[in-house]
Specification:
Blueprint: H1 3-19, H2 23-45, H3 48-62, H4 65-69, H5 77-102, H6 127-135, H7 138-149, H8 154-161, H9 165-187
Helix pairs in contact: 1-2, 2-3, 2-5, 2-7, 3-5, 6-9, 7-9, 8-9
Length: 188
Amino acid sequence: MSGNEGSISSDIRLATAAANGDQDALRALLTRLAGRLRTVAWSITRDHHEAEDLCQEALLKICQPAVLRGYRGDGPLDAYLRRVAVREMISSRRTRAVQSWNRIVLAEELPEPGDMGAVPGAPQLAPELRTAMDALPERAREVVVLIVLGELSYEETSQATGLKLGTVRSTYFRARAQLADALGASRS
């Protein structure tokens, strides 16, 4: 058995154990994924509370036995669960946006000061990159986050965002160019 096959069979056993209620297996999965999912949620929302809510909803989704049993070993378990989690975040965010449009806003709310800062166990962006990402339009930032941090393919990003595949590709291309320009200027 090759290393990859051993890893896949180990992932299948872990997913099956977690689906069958093994708390240690479930805890191991959540520990492996939580940091990356927090970073993705924060990068999408730019709001600490909304990011935590999205992350919690995504973690609850991937804990469902049906989701865990849906893993077939077609690739790494972490990648499968990240895709499920990111799709849940996008879906939850869309639902919230629709709900907020349905409410009548009587007064403009001011954004909360500060940001989420360092998230334990999550990969951190360099300050220059964070500044450059903040300067991107929301749609471009979301596409970059899903492709780079969420590790989704162009097709999966298209499905998650509802954008056409060509739009995802062109948005990602332009965003990368804008990031490269911003990072080049900050190093000059």
